[in-house]
């Protein structure tokens, strides 16, 4: 159809406003954004003007889209190719002055590059791009496009829109470099609603994973130490299988939370191995000789404890038992020191693993706060 200008050398000004009604879904696995709404597209058709007095005071009429000229606009970043605006039987409003209002609806599935590194407190930036297909800037002028979400009907359960923006870019037509096309990009900034994930995923996982260090405080003779360590490890594994569908999966980026989960399961497994080692040491026969390096550790421990006791009560003579213990260690007598050695390792493992857990948790939360 002929462009709606009496003078075809003049450009047709097009005003475009996108009204977003629903944010249906942001699929992080498939990396697509599903939205619904409508456009209000306005222009002036110089060929569709009349005097209302000549036509019984008619100020406005409606016509089918196929009967008049309209801009050939497409949503260009849909996952199933370009999506054309409107339909042949869609009606347009035409004012007696030639002002035309076109309000095509849309339900789009557009591609979106998702970055889930900061899950579950991540923000995503997605865009809907519209582009004229065969109409160049020499023919139409898309003026100051707008994005309006004030009519938003149903909030999305996972994401909230925090910011909107519209930008334009100009591209040269490949077949004819003298022609340009205008691309309008409607950008949505969305923040994940993280409360559900923090309460149902992160919180329980942090709590369960921190229980493994408590096992070192259980008496080795109670027989429950390995049970606690194994229960924690199995609980984390089962919990991971439960929340697996909630964790984002994309090849573009790896969530720090997924790395955190792997580290915490690894620490739980390390706790189990350390408990096995200390129980093995605790249950060794007193006839088993103590290696020299362990004897040195025991002697230094006893000396430090004796010095501490002496500093607390300097008026009391030092208990000779420490020296007796040291003498027995050096002489290799049959006194059973393996339980005491196991207690030393228990304390060391408790401190080291507790520090590691605190460091991992601190690093995880600092990354997400910053």
Keywords:
single chain, 370 residues, alpha+beta, Acetylcholine Binding Protein, Chain: A, Methane Monooxygenase Hydroxylase, Chain G, domain 1, 2 domains, five-stranded antiparallel beta sheet, 6 helices, 12 strands, 34% helix
Shape: rod-shaped
Termini separation comes to 56 Å
CATH architecture of the largest domain: Distorted Sandwich
Q: What is the CATH third-level topology name of the largest domain?
A: Acetylcholine Binding Protein, Chain: A
Helix content: 25-40%
Total helix count? 6
CATH class category of the largest domain: Mainly Beta
Low-confidence stretches: 315-326
Briefly note the structural class of the backbone: alpha+beta
Overall description:
The protein is an alpha+beta fold. It has two domains: 12-193, Distorted Sandwich (Acetylcholine Binding Protein, Chain: A), CATH 2.70.170; 196-285 and 336-369, Methane Monooxygenase Hydroxylase, Chain G, domain 1 (Up-down Bundle), CATH 1.20.58. It has six helices and twelve strands. The chain has helices at residues 195-210, 225-243, 256-282, 292-312, 321-331, 338-369, and strands spanning 12-27, 32-44, 60-64, 73-75, 83-84, 91-95, 99-102, 105-111, 123-132, 140-148, 159-173, 176-192. The strands form two sheets. Strands 1, 2, 3, 6, 7, 8 and 10 form a seven-stranded mixed beta sheet that branches. It has a five-stranded antiparallel beta sheet with strand order 5-4-9-12-11, with no helix packed on it. Helix 1 (195-210) packs antiparallel against helix 2 (225-243) and helix 1 runs parallel beside helix 3. The longest helix is centred in the last third of the chain and has 32 residues, at 338-369. The model is unreliable at 315-326 (pLDDT under 50). The chain crosses the membrane at residues 196-218, 255-281, 348-367. Its main location: membrane. One of its GO terms (cellular component) is membrane. Keywords: Ion channel, Ion transport, Membrane, Transmembrane, Transmembrane helix, Transport.
């Amino acid at each position: 159809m002929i462009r709606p200008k009496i003078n075809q050398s003049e450009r047709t000004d097009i005003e475009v406003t996108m009204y977003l009604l629903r944010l249906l879904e942001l699929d992080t696995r498939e990396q697509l954004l599903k939205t619904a709404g409508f456009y209000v597209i306005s222009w002036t058709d110089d060929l569709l003007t009349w005097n209302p007095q000549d036509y019984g005071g008619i100020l406005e009429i409606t016509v089918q889209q196929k009967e008049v000229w309209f801009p050939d606009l497409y949503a260009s970043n849909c996952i199933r190719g370009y999506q054309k605006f409107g339909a042949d039987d869609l009606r347009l409003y035409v004012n007696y002055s030639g002002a035309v209002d076109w309000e095509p609806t849309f339900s789009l599935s557009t591609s979106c590059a998702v970055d889930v590194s900061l899950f579950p407190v991540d923000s995503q930036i997605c865009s809907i791009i519209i582009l004229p297909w065969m109409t160049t800037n020499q023919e139409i002028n898309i003026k100051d496009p707008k994005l309006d979400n004030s009519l938003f009907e149903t909030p999305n359960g996972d994401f909230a829109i925090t910011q909107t923006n519209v930008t334009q870019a100009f591209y040269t037509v490949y077949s004819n470099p003298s022609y340009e096309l205008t691309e309008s990009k409607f950008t949505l900034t969305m923040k994940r609603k993280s409360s559900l994930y923090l309460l149902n995923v992160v919180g329980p996982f942090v709590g369960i994973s921190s229980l493994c260090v408590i096992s070192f405080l259980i008496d080795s003779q109670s027989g429950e130490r390995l049970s606690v360590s194994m229960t924690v490890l199995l609980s984390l594994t089962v919990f991971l299988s439960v929340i697996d569908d909630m964790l984002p999966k994309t090849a573009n980026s790896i969530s720090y939370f997924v790395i955190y989960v792997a580290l915490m399961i690894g620490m739980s497994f390390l706790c189990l191995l350390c408990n096995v080692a200390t129980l093995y040491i605790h249950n060794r026969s007193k006839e088993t000789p103590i290696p020299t390096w362990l004897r040195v550790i025991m002697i230094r421990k006893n000396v430090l404890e004796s010095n501490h006791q002496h500093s607390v009560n300097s008026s009391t003579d030092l208990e000779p038992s420490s020296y007796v213990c040291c003498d027995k260690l050096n002489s290799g007598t049959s006194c059973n020191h393996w339980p005491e050695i196991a207690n030393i390792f228990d304390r060391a493992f408790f401190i080291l693993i507790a520090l590691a857990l605190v460091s991992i948790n601190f690093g995880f939360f600092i990354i997400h706060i910053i």
